[in-house]
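Final report, closing paragraph on structural work. Over the funding period we assembled a curated collection of sequence-structure pairs, and we close with a single example.
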Amino acid sequence: MTLSVIIPVYRVEDTLDRCISSIVNQSYADWEIILVDDGSPDSCPQKCDDWARKDARIHVIHQKNGGLSDARNAGIEVAQGEFITFVDSDDYLEEDTLSSVMNVILDSSHQDAPLDNKNQDTELPRHDNNYNNCIDILEYPIYRFFGSKKQSLLTFEPEFYDDMQDYWLKGRAYEHAYACNKIFRRNLFDQVRFPKGKHFEDMHILPLLLEHARRVVTIPQGLYYYCWNADSITATADGTSLNDLLQANLQAEWMDDRSYLHVLNIQIDVYEQKGEVTLGKKKIDTSANLSHAEKVKGMLVNLLGVEGVCRLFRFLHHIKSPKP
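Its predicted structure, as stored:
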């Protein structure tokens, strides 16, 4: 078996069938689904068992509630595929997504094969590395916050990265460090697991996986629907969860001016909630290839320092907020 699809399940009665159906109905069929019932107190456990009875490729784990990281880790422990992907149970895949992404991966596994997929019109740049073309991580398009006013489509040019720093900085992976729109070679998880008790766990784990990866590929085919959930951590983030996100960004090995300004935005939100400053000051080159907003924020950091910028934005936020 080639691909293990790990789906944590908790209180998703209304969306679980849609999620599983979007995988079962894919044209690509060499997969297993691992449904991890994380102690869901509704009809989800029964739904999982019903799906497993209908399709022998679907397996179910029932466990006490431990959170998203614990559920994903349980799936990793039993996964049999050479590759792993994660799908959240309120999300779904567009049809033929798995065929698009797995054909690129499987074509690359032959030592003399170019990294391309002519059937899907995906042609990646040529290279002359001595080792074979094996892909460790493949990233494909994602519709973020689908169903909300903030929804946005993130797509990619066909590209490969043998330098993980290039992927993180030039590919701006820090802005889309999701676990869900990626295919991972399973052995990347030999010494890595999702952190328990942390929010925004995807951001914590991707830098760790990149330490073990040799090649990351991005393609424009396929589509993951990351659906808006008003009760999710993303929608209801408080000071503690935002601080988890900040710390996850700070653990990344690489940082340039643009990624620093991205992290600064998170630091501003943390300061708004908790009044704490963790991010150190960095001299920003405002003559560099930055957007106008980034240049302005860079000049403010150079002039006021991190805490000064945080204070300024908190003041501006308060005067803009409607008075009770």
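DSSP finds ten helices and 14 strands in the chain. The longest helix spans residues 292-320. We thank the funder for supporting this effort.
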